[in-house]
Amino acid sequence: LTHHTALIFDVYGTLIDWESGIHTALAASTPSLPLPATWTRADVLRAFGAVEADLQAQHPAMPYSALLAAAHLALRRRLEALLDPDPDPDADADAGAGNSDRDRAAAEQAAAARFAASIATWPVFPDTPRALRTLAEHFTLLALSNASFPAPSIPDPPTPFTSLLTAQDLGAYKPSPTTFSRALAHLQHAHNAPPARVLAVAQSLFHDHAPARAAGLARGVWIDRRGAVMG
C-alpha cells in the first residue's frame, strides 16, 4: 500500500450506507408505492437497483437527483404491472377520470421528489469519518461518485478529498470505464499520480472494481459491507 500515492473512493455504497437509505425511503413511500408484502429488503433493493441501472445506461448525462426521481416512478410502473398485468382499460372511463388521473400523477411526482431528496439523510457508515481523516494524511483522495452532489456528511470539513468527480461532471455513470479513465487522467495531470500508484477503494465489484480494471487499474481494495446486494 505504501507504494501508492492516490486512492479513488466510491461514495455511495462504500462510505455512505445507500442501501439502508434507499430501503428506508422506499418503505416510507408505502402504501402509495405498491411493494409486494412478501418481498424482503433484498428483493426491494434488487428491484430498485435494476431500474436504476437501466436508467443510468439510457440517460448517462441525467443528474443523479433527477435519476432517483425517475427511478422511483419507473419502479412504481414495474410494480403496478407485476401486481396487475392485465389492467382494465375502461376502469377510469367515467367523467371524473381526467381529474383523478391528474391528481394521481401529481401525487406520484411528489412522492418521487421526496424519495430523491432523501439522499440527504442516507446514513454514513460509522467507520467512514475516521478512516478518511487518517488516509488523507498519507494519500491523495479522489471521490468518484454517481451522485451529482456530495453527500452532506461526506466529507466533514475540512474535506479529506482533494477532488470530487461525479457522473454529471463526466457525462457517464459507473460502471462505465470512462469514469475511471477520466479519474486516472485527472490524478496523473493534477497530482502527478500515475495509474500504477493509484488504487480503487470500493464495495461494489459491478459499479467500481470491474470498470476500474477495464480502465487499467490492476489492483484495488474491496470494502466488505456485509449484506450488500446492489452490486
UniProtKB/TrEMBL annotation:
<dbReference type="InterPro" id="IPR051540">
    <property type="entry name" value="S-2-haloacid_dehalogenase"/>
</dbReference>
<dbReference type="InterPro" id="IPR036412">
    <property type="entry name" value="HAD-like_sf"/>
</dbReference>
<dbReference type="Pfam" id="PF00702">
    <property type="entry name" value="Hydrolase"/>
</dbReference>
<feature type="region of interest" description="Disordered">
    <location>
        <begin position="84"/>
        <end position="107"/>
    </location>
</feature>
<feature type="compositionally biased region" description="Acidic residues">
    <location>
        <begin position="84"/>
        <end position="93"/>
    </location>
</feature>
<dbReference type="InterPro" id="IPR023214">
    <property type="entry name" value="HAD_sf"/>
</dbReference>
<protein>
    <recommendedName>
        <fullName>Haloacid dehalogenase</fullName>
    </recommendedName>
</protein>
<dbReference type="GO" id="GO:0016787">
    <property type="term" value="F:hydrolase activity"/>
</dbReference>
<keyword id="KW-0378">Hydrolase</keyword>
